[in-house]
Predict the structure.
Amino acid sequence: MRITEGMMAGDFLYTINKNRAQINKLEIDLASGKRLQKVSDDPTAADAVLRLNAGIDRNDQYQKNVTDGQGVLAQTGSSLDDMGSLLQEVQSIVVQAKDGDQTSVMGSLAERVDQLLNEAVSLANSKFNGKFIFGGTQTTAQPYTLVTNPGPPATQGVAYAGNAEIIHYPTGESLVQQVSVPGSEAFGGTALFNSLIRVRDTLRAGQTPSTDDANAVAAALDTVTQTASKAGSLSQSLDNTTVHLTNQKTQLQVLLSAEQDTDVAEASLNLKQAQTMLDAALASGAQILPKSLLDFLK
Amino acid sequence: MSGLSTLLETARRALMAQQVEMSVTGHNIANASTAGYSRQRVNLVETPALRESYGFLGTGVVSDQITRLRDSFLDRQVWNGNATMGDATSQQAILSQIEASFNEPSSAGLSSAMTSFFNSFQDLALHPEESSARNSVLQQASLLSGNFHRLHDEITTLRTSMTEDVNAKVTQINQLSSEISDLDGQITSARATGGSPSDLLDQRDQKIEELSSIANISVSENQQGSVMVSIGGVVIASRSGPQNLRVQQSPAGLQVVTEKEGVQVALAGGTLGGDLALTNSTIPGYVTRLDQLAGALINRVNTVHRGGFGLGTPPPTGQDFFSGTGAADIDVSAALQADPNGVAASGTGAPGDNSVALAIVGITNEPLLQGKSLTLSQFYNGLVTGVGTALNNANSTSDTQQLIHTQLDNQRQAVSAVSIDEEMTNLIKYQRAFDAAARLVSTTNDMFLTILGMKTT
């Protein structure tokens, strides 16, 4: 094959260009830490990166949702625990009223029950983050209010403004978890308060609360205890979700890194190699290209 | 009967021939770096010998013809490769701009805007009774809409700007085809008088080569050495002159047609062919898919949203979330912009209910597109990776063609290019031959003088 100056120059430039392009890409990869700058660098990996990035963003959101849900449930649990102790006190008052038979004591016991009733209503109106937690999905209106039913005879009662709806938070792909217990479930609607009102009114009338009344309080306590344990288990399952989400995020990040991050060791090695090749090409080009027969003719 | 005069004539012929050789060598050296130049050679032939009693006596040399050294088979291969290369080049240029517009993977792309939009509905699901959560939903929705607009605008603007590019390329084709026809006329008339006009041939080949990167040309040459250049069956340059082309808008997009009859030219390669394919099918395809994506998002979110309730007494319901029908005009509906509390989270009207917010979050996982087989993000990822794959293919086609071109060009240069070393060597050779011929003249002259100086006594 005839080799001409033009061919040598052309081949030289082609090789140098290729070499420089490779060095350029490797340097960007190393500087940015990512081997995937554009979709066209590796469309398959880019598809995975888009998916994984969205997955990580959603995972962050789910973790946030879970944290919020745990807050609601913690507040629910503590309100219910307080409600439980309150009912236990009412139970002991009922027992006390049965044991003693002085009407004067009855009066003061009735006052204590009245206080407890007010406390129970305010517990049932507990808020978390500005929202009523026992109103079902009616979170902005106070769920429980003491009302007087116009008689005669005028009787006191409690009105429930909430509903029986349950609130769910999204905590995973196509997964929602319950984060609320409505008052209709926790307090049997108004049953708990009515039982307290009956005990109080009986005591006020100087009478011993009946077995039915005592049973009603016991039943309310039972419901509250059960609901508290339900709130506990809901919170527990959110904890499990957190663990799951944290693991999932780690996995997603590992996968993402595998798809898009530069293998620094490999890239550095390749860069070194490419630089050596460029040096060699430039050095040999500088020596050979300027030579021609003219150098030797006088 | 040979004599000294014959000898002098032989020397004269040699001097002439060596001068021609030197001239051609000079021409070669002068054009060593001229694009498309083929080195030339003089064919020297012996002049007819004289019949003498003792045999045939040579009478010297004459330069017969100057020819160029060129392999037209390699030319054709280069021209074919150029069409593929041109197509890939044009795709690289345009697709890389589209890829940059998509700006993926990054936190500023549509993918991330879409995730943030749906995440804002998750936030709303946590606080369905709050206005602030609604404001952030609307903010994310307008960011998402803005992203759709930007993409749509950038891609359609790119397409519009390509129209100018196509026009410029057609003008260039017309220019080249008229130059080719011109040169062709000169070549055929030069040929008619006998001889091969190397420089004109080089120029014509060079023009054809320029043309070959713009369009998929085919070239045929007749016995008189006249070429006929055609694109997709339409002759654009021939002995009878150039045929001008023009661009016209049609329902199918831009078309290249002949100026007079309006016959459509089937372009299937070259930068022009690449441009036409991009502007007529590839880019509209991307825009359509972007519109489908926006349309599906608008429809589905609106359907779910209409069934929900916002905040207020009575809670507003039955409202659309988005207005518009595609990527160009998607926006938060005017009613919601005026009153963010219209954003529905509740399915019952109770302010703490988040079932509609949850249902909207759930849209992320609903297969809505491509015959209800792909979710919004799957469809979008498919669109983005489609652009990336097309660009990736164009890049590797371009790389391959570049390599092939380099190899073919090397082969061509091996035949046609000027080697300075070789020309210098030839120069020395011709100079020596010239010196020798000159010596022959002076020797013959001496011989004449010898004879003329003889005295008869």
